[in-house]
Write a structure and sequence with these properties.
Elements: E1 4-11, E2 21-30, H1 33-46, E3 50-54, E4 57-61, E5 80-88, E6 93-102, H2 109-126, E7 132-134, E8 141-143, H3 162-196, H4 203-235, H5 270-277
Antiparallel strand pairs: 1-2, 2-6, 3-4, 4-5, 5-6, 7-8
Helix pairs in contact: 1-2, 2-3, 3-4
Length: 291
């Protein structure tokens, strides 16, 4: 694809009320800014963003799932404000800077890696060449930038670049890993409460310690199962494409009545057949004996 990561900078300084974190990185993409801008906008929409401005290119994505309640382990579930700046970097290259403002108070190293994979996926979609895509319903060929078949109108399934799969694996495995680590911390609190409860002389204090420990233990086991399920679904994705009905072959409708055959001609002799092959002569025959 010709993409090269130039910088990887992050800032822990909050924005607004301190619940936002900034992160930006730059990539070098082939092409000029005028041709890249509409393709980047289309790529953002394919990843769930809503483009609010094209010059400069700005997009937003709302919170998804548990991200709306600040309880998700996937950084991509939180609200995002993305600004894309472009600057010429040579005759046939452009320096594209992705400036993220994420509705999360703190980004870990794994979260920054997930965001970097998303920026690379956006760049891959924007620089993807148009390839032939065959409609599964009628067999008509189209291009990868076409969303619907030009003949039957059903949605076309284009081959996504490898960066999309890398983004899915990175985000899913990272979210599952964070959930498992959090569950391990809760289970450690349970073990600590069980160990310290017998040494507390006050019965009410010991009971409170045991209750707190069992609450954290129950949440820990629940999060452990949820994290392992997330990892299993990430490493074993299900095919989401719906089976389309088979294409029926076209039927040739025979005419309701038969046409009479032409009358059979009598066979010609060899001389007549040879004469029929000669071209007709339209010249005037003049009498050589006349002056």
């Amino acid at each position: 694809m010709g993409t090269e990561i130039i910088t990887d900078m992050s800032s822990g300084s909050g924005w607004g009320a301190g619940h936002y974190t900034e992160f930006d990185l730059s990539l070098v993409l082939p092409g000029d800014s005028e041709s890249l801008r509409p393709r980047l906008a289309d790529a953002l929409e394919r990843l769930g963003y809503r483009v609010i401005n094209e010059q400069p290119l700005q997009a937003r994505r709302s919170a998804r799932g548990w991200g709306s309640s600040m309880m998700s382990s996937d950084v991509l579930d939180y609200p995002v404000k993305l600004s894309v700046a472009m600057k010429a970097s040579g005759e046939w290259a452009t320096l594209v800077t992705f400036d993220y403002v994420i509705g999360h108070p703190m980004l870990t190293k794994g979260d920054r890696q997930t965001i970097a994979r998303e920026a690379e996926a956006i760049a891959a979609l924007a620089t993807q060449r148009a390839t032939a895509v065959t409609c599964q319903q009628c067999g008509t060929e189209g291009t990868s930038d076409s969303r619907f078949c030009r003949r039957c109108g059903i949605p076309l399934i284009a081959n996504s670049p490898a960066e999309i799969e890398v983004l899915r694996l990175t985000a899913g495995s990272r979210a599952g890993y964070q959930t498992v680590v959090t569950s391990a911390i809760f289970l450690a609190i349970l073990n600590l409460a069980v160990i310290l409860a017998p040494f507390i002389s006050n019965p009410k204090g010991a009971l409170a310690m045991a209750i707190i420990g069992w609450i954290f233990g129950g949440l820990g086991w629940l999060m452990m199962l949820f994290g392992l399920r997330r990892l299993h679904r990430t490493l074993n994705p299900k095919e989401r494409r719906e089976a389309l009905p088979p294409v029926e072959p076209r039927r040739v409708i025979a005419p309701s009545h038969t046409m009479p055959l032409p009358p059979e001609q009598a066979p010609m002799s060899v001389t007549e057949s040879t004469t029929e092959l000669l071209p007709p002569v339209h010249a005037e025959v003049r009498d050589r004996n006349t002056g």
